[in-house]
Write a structure and sequence with these properties.
Layout (H helix, E strand, L loop, with lengths): L2 H13 L4 E5 L4 H12 L8 H4 L7 H4 L5 E8 L5 H8 L6 E2 L8 H20 L4 E4 L7 H7 L4 E2 L5 E2 L7 E8 L18 H5 L5 E3 L2 E2 L5 H7 L9 H4 L2 E3 L3 H4 L26 H6 L2 H7 L9 H15 L4 H9 L6 H15 L1
Parallel strand pairs: 3-10
Antiparallel strand pairs: 1-2, 2-7, 4-7, 5-6, 8-9
Helix pairs in contact: 1-6, 14-16, 15-16
């Protein structure tokens, strides 16, 4: 495929709001081995979807049979500077929400942009085969992005770009076009182990190995039931996800605040207080998280997470009163977490 088309694809991607576009081939043997090792260790916990698709995740032609090349894109989402995030994290009565979820849910936004990119390619060359993905199918997006030259997978398992850090989303277009792939990015973590040290639950059990069962993001977002008692005090005031490993990464000094308005904080989600979010009714929760990725955990887990964070907060009569007032909640699972939080406040 002429290099001129590839350059046009990359330029169109930038015009559509992506910060970088790269081309990868379909050979993901190394990533497949890493995935199988991760699954064999049980590090996926309740993330059953990571195993149930067989080899489709690591062999693109099994997911989309005609795939010859993969267009990989990244879109920056950082909504505020690190000092604001650290202030929220260090305030034990603040409700800390992972910064990727403060604005509009990225899945639909990026999917629409990828479709527009595919439309531009089609207008240029005619009908071609493709499928676009944004966390919507079994895709090894970080391994693909690394092969496409967008960055390298760091010791915390996130993708890092030398000029942009790691605060970005990824998306892909699997295509039957034979596009010349970009050079993969080499790793530049060196001897740094800051992310392993800072992880509040020590979920990064070794460089490039994350035990999801201990990860705060998994515990507060993916886990449907009871949060293990021994991990609750380590969660602190994080009620949806965790950014610690990114906050500490020295490469993120190069990250820029996003220019995408849809990723800016909504409903003051970056400055909410624990007592306030714990007091939300279900209708308030649905209203204040409309269009947000936060909605996917539902109201029950929202209360569960907020109760744990209140249990971790400094002892306070107002907090104790708020917890006791919520003991009438219908969910046995939530009540158990509230009872734990009350014991923490009384201990």
């Amino acid at each position: 495929m002429p290099s001129a088309l590839i350059e046009k694809i990359k330029q169109w991607g930038i015009e559509l709001g992506f910060q970088q576009v790269g081309i990868a081939d379909t050979q993901l043997n190394e990533a497949e081995n890493h995935l199988h090792h991760w699954l064999d260790n049980g590090f996926h916990g309740e993330l059953d979807y990571m195993a149930k698709h067989g080899l489709k995740r690591s062999r693109p032609t099994l997911l989309y049979p005609n795939t010859q090349s993969i267009i990989s894109v990244r879109m920056d989402y950082l909504p505020e500077y690190a000092i604001a995030m650290k202030t929220a994290l260090n305030s034990p009565t603040s409700a800390y929400i992972s910064r990727y979820a403060l604005g509009r849910d990225y899945h639909k936004l990026m999917r629409q942009r990828l479709q527009k990119l595919a439309d531009k390619i089609q207008a240029e060359i005619g009908t071609f085969g493709y499928r676009a993905f944004v966390d919507s199918a079994p895709v090894l997006e970080k391994a693909i992005a690394q092969k496409a030259g967008l960055g390298w997978i760091g010791k915390h398992s996130n993708l890092i770009n030398r000029k942009a850090g790691s605060w970005f989303f990824l998306g892909e277009i699997y295509t039957d076009l034979a596009l010349t792939p970009d050079q993969p990015t080499t790793a530049h973590c060196g001897e740094c182990s800051a992310c392993l040290t800072i992880c509040p639950t020590q979920a990064i059990v070794a460089p490039y190995q994350v035990d999801a069962r201990r990860c705060v993001s998994y515990l507060t977002i993916e886990l449907h039931g009871t949060i293990p008692v021994e991990l609750r005090p380590l969660i602190g005031n994080r009620i949806y996800g965790c950014d610690d490993c990114q906050l500490i990464c020295p490469w993120n000094r190069f990250a820029n605040v996003t220019k995408e308005p849809d990723f800016h904080p909504r409903q003051r989600l970056n400055t909410q207080q624990l007592l306030d979010v714990f007091a939300w009714s279900e209708s308030e929760f649905l209203m204040k998280t409309e269009g947000s990725a936060i909605r996917r955990i539902g109201y029950e887990r929202w209360l569960r997470n907020s109760a744990v964070a209140l249990g971790n907060a400094p002892k306070n009569a107002e907090i104790l009163h708020a917890l006791k007032a919520r003991l009438t909640v219908h969910s046995d699972m939530v009540r158990e977490h509230i009872q734990w939080a009350i014991k923490q406040q009384l201990s």
